[in-house]
Each structure stands twice: as C-alpha cells, then as structure tokens.
Amino acid sequence: YGSLKKGFDNHRLLSKSTKRIGKAQTIKKFGMFEDSFGNYPYLIPQPISKIEGELYQINRKEILDEIDEFEGAPDFYQRERIKVKTHKGEKIAFVYIRKDADIPKDQKPLKVWENNSEYKIQKLLLKLSEFGFKEIINHQSNFFVKGNILYKNINDFNSKVINEINTCYLH
C-alpha cells in the first residue's frame, strides 16, 4: 500500500526474487495516514476504509526478513496476515500495521498512497523549517542549509539529515 509499490521509492526491496501478482484491496477496513514528513503511509487498526495496494509473492525468507527490518517490525510495525481481494480472487497477504498510533487530528484518511514527489518535497520542507532548516533555490537546484552546513542535493540531505531528525524523535 506504500513505498514498496512499483514506481515508488523503496520498490527495490521487492525487485529480487519476488513476483508481482497485481493490484489488491484489503477485505477488512483500516485507517491509512501519512507520516509527519509525507514520506510514507502507515496503517492503523481502525475500520475506516478498504486500502488499495499491490500484492507480491516473496520467494525467499531472507527478503521477508529484509522487509521486516526496513519496516521496523516487530518494534515499530507489526506484520500481520490479512485477506485481500485481487483479480485472481481472495488471497492471504502480509501487511504492516502501527498498532500504537492514534488517528491524526490534522489529516483525512487515505485509501491510496500516491507517488507525488512535489507534494512530498513541500511537506518535507515545511516540516524541516520547524527544525531550523532553510531552503535556498538556485537555478532549479535545491540546496538545504542548517547553520553553516550546505547539503547539495536531496539525496545528500536525506542520507545525513533525516537520520539526525529520526534520532531526535527516537530519544
């Protein structure tokens, strides 16, 4: 339902030894919301709407282990078996759920996670301004500045700063 879907940021985790079955929709209803940076969605166990996503067959346990680690399971998310509806009928699938999260008061629930890079960047910039970052735009290139540190591109920025911010949240 999120960033592991084809064409999304983290699909590379599913690119080896997996087979795309196709689109799928949950039978049970969940609540789907986005993280505070707009980078990814998460599910909560609230019966709000059926969620649309993709179903993959994973052929090696170590890939499922990699995905568990990526998703922060079992500490942050819990992997659960659910029923989904596909063009080939009803199937059993794994889904990652945040059981400790409440319904965000400032968001409407989502049914589908869209791959909208411009929206994600704007949401990220807004959130980063709360941490003292300023964006400098120079001839279609984005530079990010905090204090006297210049981040030359979004990848440089993501790899260094998001870890710093996540560490602030975790402690």
What's this, in brief?
This protein is of the alpha+beta class.
Give me some keywords for this one.
171 residues; alpha+beta; four-stranded antiparallel β-sheet; three-stranded antiparallel β-sheet; 9 strands; 24% helix; 36% strand; disordered C terminus
> Please, what is the average pLDDT?
82
- Backbone shape: globular
N-to-C series of helices and strands: EEEEHEEHEEEH
β-sheet strand percentage: 35-45%
Placed side by side, the strands forming the largest sheet appear as 4-1-5-6
Rg estimate, integer Å: 18 Å
Low-confidence stretches: 136-141, 167-171
Percent helix among the residues? 10-25%
Largest sheet: number of strands, sense, barrel closure: 4 strands, antiparallel
The number of strands is: 9
In DSSP terms (H or I, runs of 4 or more residues), the helix count works out at 3
Termini Cα gap: 29 Å
Structural class label? alpha+beta
